[in-house]
Amino acid sequence: MIFDLLGVPPQALFGQLLLGLINGSFYALLSLGLAVIFGMLNIINFAHGAQYMLGAFCAYFLLQFAGINYWLALIIAPIVVGAFGIVLERLFLKHLYKLDHLYGLLLTFGIALILEGIFRRYFGSSGIPYSPPQLLTGGYNLGFMYLPKYRAWVVICSLTVCLLTWFMIEKTRLGAYLRAATENPTLVRAFGINVPRMITLTYGFGVGLAALAGVMAAPIYNVSPQMGASLIIVVFAVVVIGGMGSIMGAIVTGFSLGIIEGLTKVFFPQASNTVIFVIMVIVLLTRPAGLFGRTT
């Protein structure tokens, strides 16, 4: 009855809700990595989309040239890309921490253009297929919709990683040290903590989250040099809405906006590409620090 009133077939509604949850999973993981990096390092990491793309390509290379399956790639690729991020931080970003945020944004934007240009030169702009693991092929018929196993796995895995990251940063001693190091690094050094090393590992961890999202996205969206460029603007809007540097804001806003975007495709398809940015404008006008951000 309710679907008759809405004028929407239930399969279409639940299908778009599932698609919104999947997109929200990637929004949450990527914005979480951005929030970790900005909250702990005060760097606006515009290379995050390129690092997401590197995660997908790393999984593809591991499969093609080393025969490493999806499950191992899910562990190895974030470590490899995170190590690459650590090298970037040591070579370039560490010199920018005391400067205006604009310098970090411009540097990471340049790095993103270089990485995307290199991969586009050798792999073109079309996507490369990457098959999901055999264990997650097929799906479940729920009666009102068909639920693919792999997409259900993406949502569950993303939510689990997000909550574990929030718990580590907000509820553990390590997280307390990380937060304290951003406020008063001199005091933290007095406790024998190597603050530069902690900052470097934090950046590597944030980059690793982007790579993890890239590995999970590869079987759904294919592996493409431009897969990060089309996503990073939306993810930045998610971070702004949730509050720059807010861990819980990134998680809640990422999943919520994915669902809102999915519902918009059902009831008002023309606005589906702009609804997140409309919400961002409204939030900035009413609460400039974001929904979960703290006004300074």
Can you give a write-up of this model?
This protein has 296 residues and is mainly α. It has a domain at 27-226. Helix content is 73%, strand content 2%. The protein has twelve helices and two strands. It has a two-stranded antiparallel sheet. A hairpin with a 4-residue loop joins strand 1 (139-141) and strand 2. Helix 2 (10-41) packs across helix 10 and helix 10 (229-242) crosses helix 11 (247-267). The longest helix has 32 residues, at 10-41. The N and C termini lie far apart (49 Å).
Itemize the secondary structure elements and their pairings:
Blueprint: H1 2-6, H2 10-41, H3 48-66, H4 70-91, H5 101-123, E1 139-141, E2 146-148, H6 149-171, H7 173-183, H8 185-190, H9 195-221, H10 229-242, H11 247-267, H12 275-286
Antiparallel strand pairs: 1-2
Helix pairs in contact: 2-6, 2-9, 2-10, 2-11, 3-4, 3-5, 3-9, 4-9, 6-7, 10-11, 10-12
What is the overall silhouette?
globular
Q: Strand order across the biggest sheet?
A: 1-2
Task: Report the strand count.
Answer: 2
Strand content: under 5%
Structural class: mainly alpha
Distance between the first and last residues' Cα: 49 Å
Percent of residues in helices comes to over 70%
Oligomer: single chain
Low-confidence stretches: 1-5
**Element-level helix/strand string:** HHHHHEEHHHHHHH
Mean pLDDT across all amino acids:
87
Largest sheet: 2 strands, antiparallel
Number of helices: 12
Rg from C-alpha positions? 20 Å
